[in-house]
Design brief:
The chain is an alpha/beta fold. The chain contains twelve helices and 16 strands. It has helices at residues 9-18, 54-61, 76-85, 116-122, 186-202, 226-235, 241-266, 303-306, 333-340, 355-358, 377-380, 424-441, and strands spanning 29-35, 64-66, 126-132, 150-154, 166-167, 170-171, 173-175, 178-179, 209-214, 273-279, 310-313, 322-324, 369-374, 384-390, 393-396, 405-408. It starts with 8 loop residues before the first helix and ends in a 10-residue tail after the last helix.
Length: 451
């Protein structure tokens, strides 16, 4: 599939501004909607037949649908850290999940690294995060200390219950730094807070904004409202309960996203807002989630754990119905937004701007795609395990103690034929590339110093 060329004078004007020429075109607003454990096969625009996501599909239909994007990690915190810094997660101290219990926490978000909110705030944007943070529970890694003017959401990793909002019996819901106890389903709260924020920004059109809306759905526990389960059961009475509950959870989430899109429309902000919808990793199959057609799931480096829905809508700059098969990573959002805001991305970034793709072109300069996760327990032992894609070749392992597997994605996109035993030279080449990334990441501590 090839990207469709974009005929947009506003996009052209903005790109000229990035080249330091004068322009009167307003800078765009930015909105990232990030969902949690959202499988590629749980969005109907990617071909799923049993789930209905009309509002997410609308983003794709009115913008550019990407078919070959991957998350930066197979689990939550590293992808979020990468998205907000434009760097591989282990280079910012987050190779694994940051958890509420220190003995089981495998990352510390480096407070010296600037975030996308820092960059855009310095360019005059109002910056806000609504929803799940998952990058630290205390200073100096609270959202208001990492570049966000406004925070309304949840600090922790996951909720034990979507209506009590507690984690291990503690409350991590905050309005900026203030502890709050809101009532309602977390998905509804985050959707409504985001809609309220957007309506407020519509009354302040002279200042552009960056909103990072990070849902914790459809991460387990799978807790859709009962009426949403009933809807699914009514149309598919023979469906297994575990699948029906996940579909109901996703469709309830989609309805919340619909309210956010309506707020953009009502406030007059939609035309010049660059909206990215994506997810932090693939779904967990044991909870009825779907990563079809890809092999594997969350926590694994097969593409079921890495391939995620990714779409960009910008009515002022992207032709509706565009598609791209560009193979990038979620953190490419960072330099893309920087460029469109007229800011030169830091040379230290690992991410690459998608602006050429949004223009309808291609990015021809090849790069490796690197993935890492560190984890505890007997299976992982506190060690990391990695994967790397170079062109059509992919090397991976799914725990630190198993041998590497090697796949040629061009011939074998479903990763069924392990070539590690027969393509030793290629295996050694890619293993050496992983060692290079491991050494770079090892220069950044992933635990707090304790000073």
């Amino acid at each position: 599939m090839k990207s469709i060329p974009i005929a947009s004078t506003i996009l052209a004007a903005l790109l000229v501004s990035v080249s330091h020429a004068n322009t009167s075109a307003p800078r765009p607003n930015f909105l990232v909607i990030l969902t949690d454990d959202h499988g590629y096969g749980d969005v109907s625009t990617y071909g799923a037949k049993d789930v209905r996501t009309p509002h997410i599909d609308r983003v794709a239909n009115e913008g550019m649908l990407f078919t070959t994007m991957r998350a930066n990690c197979t689990v939550c915190s590293p992808t979020r850290a990468a998205l907000l810094t434009g760097r591989y997660a282990d280079r910012v101290g987050v190779p694994g999940v940051i958890r509420t219990a220190a003995r089981d926490s495998w990352g510390y978000f480096d407070p010296k690294v600037p975030t996308l909110a820092d960059l855009l705030g310095g360019a005059g944007y109002h910056t806000a995060i609504i929803g799940k943070w998952h990058l630290g529970l205390e200073s100096p890694n609270l959202p208001n200390e990492r570049g966000f003017d406004y925070f309304h959401g949840f600090l922790g990793d996951m909720m034990d219950n979507y209506t009590t909002h507690l984690r291990h019996g503690r409350n991590y819901m905050r309005h900026n730094r203030e502890e709050i106890k809101p009532e309602g389903h977390a998905t509804d709260l985050f959707s409504n807070w985001a809609a309220d924020y957007l309506r407020g920004r519509g009354k302040l059109p002279d200042q552009p904004f960056f909103l990072y809306l990070a849902y914790n759905a459809p991460h387990f526990p799978i807790e859709p409202p009962a009426e949403w389960v009933a809807k699914v059961k009514q149309r598919a009475p023979a469906m297994k309960d575990v699948r029906a509950r996940n579909i109901a959870f996703v469709e309830h989430l989609d309805a919340g996203i619909g309210r956010v899109l309506a707020a953009l429309d009502d406030s007059g902000l939609a035309q010049n807002t660059v909206l990215v919808f994506t997810a932090d990793n693939g779904g967990a199959l044991g909870y009825g989630q779907n990563n079809d057609p890809w092999r594997g799931e969350k926590q694994q480096h097969y593409d079921g754990g890495l391939r995620v829905p990714f779409m960009v809508r910008w009515p002022a700059g992207i032709k509706p119905g565009s598609r791209s098969d560009h193979a990038g990573l979620v953190f490419d959002v960072f330099p893309t937004f920087a460029e469109l805001a007229g800011k030169r991305p830091d040379a230290a970034l690992d991410a690459r701007s998608l602006v050429p793709v949004l223009q309808g072109g291609t990015i021809t300069d090849p790069r490796d795609l690197y993935f890492v996760r560190r984890e505890g327990g007997l299976k992982y032992g506190g060690n990391s395990y990695e994967a790397l894609i170079r062109g059509d070749w992919k090397i991976l392992r799914n725990d630190p103690f198993s041998p590497y597997e090697l796949y040629h994605l061009g011939d074998d996109p479903l990763e069924t034929n392990d070539l590690a035993a027969t393509k030793r030279k290629k295996l050694e080449e890619l293993a050496a590339a992983i060692r290079y990334h491991t050494q770079r990441g090892g220069a950044t501590p992933w635990q707090a110093s304790g000073d």
